Amino acid sequence: MIIAHNLGFPRIGRDRELKFALEDYWGGKLERSALEDCGRTLRHEHWQQQAEAGLDLLPVGDFHWYDQVLTQSLMLGAIPERFADAGEPDLDTLFHLARGTHPHKEGTFACEMTKWFDTNYHYLVPELHIEQTFSLQWTQLFDEVAEAQALGYRVKPVVIGPLTWLWLGKIKGADFDRLQLLERLLPVYQSILQRLAEQGIDWVQIDEPILALDLPSDWKAAFESSYSQLQRAPVKLLLATYFDSLDDNLGLACSLPVAGLHADLVRAPEQLPLLLDRLPAYKVLSLGVVNGRNVWRCDLEHALQLLTSAAERCEQLWVAPSCSLLHSPVNLGRESELDAELRSWLAFAEQKLQEVTLLAQALRTPDRSDVQQALADSVAVQQARTTSARVHNSTVAKRLQALTPEHSVRATPFTERAALQQEKLQLPLLPTTTIGSFPQTSHIRQQRKAWRQGKLDDASYNNAMRAEIAQVIAEQETLGLDVLVHGEAERNDMVEYFGEQLEGYAFTRFGWVQSYGSRCVKPPIIVGDVSRPQAMTVAWTRYAQSLSGKPVKGMLTGPVTLLMWSFPREDVSRETSALQLALAVRDEVVDLEAAGIGIIQIDEPAFREGLPLRRTAQPHYLDWAARAFRLSASGVDDRTQIHTHMCYSEFNDTLDAIAAMDADVITIETSRSDMQLLDAFADFAYPNAIGPGVYDIHSPRVPSQADMVKLLNKAQRVIPLERLWVNPDCGLKTRNWPETRAALQAMVTAARQLRSKH
Ligand code: GLN
Ligand code: ZN
């Protein structure tokens, strides 16, 4: 018995309809009923598409107004106390939690948001307190099941499992063991399953992706006890795992009293033999063989090999994407600006469905001519990619091969470099600087749009951007900052801007993927070997430097971030792509130095994002990621100062690697944690210079000089003054000019105040 199914479909819509409807609704421009209509239309379209593609079992419960974890929290009645008086839970309550709004209270804060495993999707963190109770409150899932059934579809509801939901939650108030809540949580899950059974549901997909993590033993034990309890419900459970190998949880996952198990064979194909060995033959094995997280067409032949070997051993085999298709763009059909060859290599969510059904068909009727044809096409695509000149560039390959360890180390150690740099730069104690971008005004965006549309010629656009740079330099001179920047007016996005100038990249027009709520990102695609045909930033930076006697810091995006915020290749390792990107950035760094730029910042905000989920795989990643950064940064003279910047709030597990990057100066986001983060750097005895952000640029609030003096005093207690820089948390592109001026003025004065005491 072969079944083709899907774990989840993107809900944002082919044309991001949900995004626009949500934003209009929040902005008061759309009635609630119209928003609900939009959601219903999308669900209907998505079921229809999936049914037409030939799936046997369609997911329901993958449509979410904001986020799947938030919906699950509401369903369980886990509504934070501060929203308890926001009225009967309804759609608006959900938006209140997500956006920090409240019908009759000012200053209510939203639920915290954080990354969903190792993806770029953000979920809303459940808030757990010791007195937490649960009750079934939110009927969206049941309503949507009924809706799909009324349309005649055979559906499989999807819920986030109790252990994963708890694991993702964060304790608020008095500390306690989250597992204590299970006892109160499981009865609600039982009611959910009971109610689905009453709706005539046969199979329920229960997502437990934490089974792909290193779990403490009490959590493993909790899986056993929880699922023994849940198995009493009169439905069959498909336990879904994804994003990594089950590894040491494989035995546990196979033995839980559920009717089926889904495993990710894209991330971890090596787990198949063990799965076949350990999973009882009467259980369903669902294999995720089509990558739900990338844009490449599936190698059907390879996938079929895996499936065939499984089909020999198990009676009930299901075929699926590796994970929910939430993480893929939706519709390739409209990418008319991609050339035919490249398009033939790609598969977005809609195409992935076809791959899944084709594979199921190939198992059922291998000799059918359409199956044969599709397999032959797939082989041809793989072949074309393997030999294509747009993928393989022998010059790049040779450069990589010729790399020696010396390429990725600075010639002398930090302390000596620092002295030489100081001799050259003559910076005051506590030098002040910014992270790179200055306000991206609507004027700047209008100019760029006009230029892209061909309404503004190159020369005029150039002049407009130069005028912006001149203004930013003048502003910084007036403010009295010590190290200036050119302001990044010419950049739309810190990855796209570079990607567009590098060989080996491609861009889609509609390849949007949900990032959180109504927000989507459109990552570029790394198609082949990456190289830099010509300088990317030198002219702008040189121009900026020509306007000031103070050092202007060159501004680049680092290799790891360029990789993490793009769709990667699947034919080479991430490491290889990172090193290629590093060489491209290195060339730019060297050119900037030759153009007289003495300080160069290589941003790596996504450095931690690439960290593998499994601890055993982390050292290798951190090793190559730090090496890629150093490779990009080490082509310069000792006297050239390299900065880097990172902005996320967890450094603890990566400090070794951050130190190994050996940047002369690192600027980090810490103001929101009240400099707590800096303690980690201090405890670790981080050796190089640090600029802990002294104010939060995400907030329109202008910080006072006193606020910043306080933070600097804190910083000074843990980092020697000689290694301390003064700067905001992150780039200023989302702020306006009055806020920016006021905040930076206060920052410069704060630095001067402290400086004068030494
Ligand atoms: N240099 C970039 C800026 O200032 C850094 C952005 C980031 O850290 N995400 O905008
Ligand atoms: Zn930042």
From TrEMBL:
Indicate which residues the UniProt annotation says bind Zn(2+).
Answer: 645, 647, 669, 730
What is its EC class? transferase
Report the residue ranges that make up the Cobalamin-independent methionine synthase MetE C-terminal/archaeal domain in this protein. 430-752
Q: What is its EC number?
A: 2.1.1.14
**GO BP, one example?**
L-methionine biosynthetic process
GO molecular function terms here?
A: 5-methyltetrahydropteroyltriglutamate-homocysteine S-methyltransferase activity; zinc ion binding
Q: Which reaction does it catalyse?
A: 5-methyltetrahydropteroyltri-L-glutamate + L-homocysteine = tetrahydropteroyltri-L-glutamate + L-methionine
**Pathway assigned to this chain's UniProt record:** Amino-acid biosynthesis; L-methionine biosynthesis via de novo pathway; L-methionine from L-homocysteine (MetE route): step 1/1
Q: Which HAMAP family match?
A: Meth_synth
Q: Which family does it belong to?
A: Belongs to the vitamin-B12 independent methionine synthase family.
Quote the protein name from its UniProt record: 5-methyltetrahydropteroyltriglutamate--homocysteine methyltransferase
Report the source organism: Halopseudomonas salegens
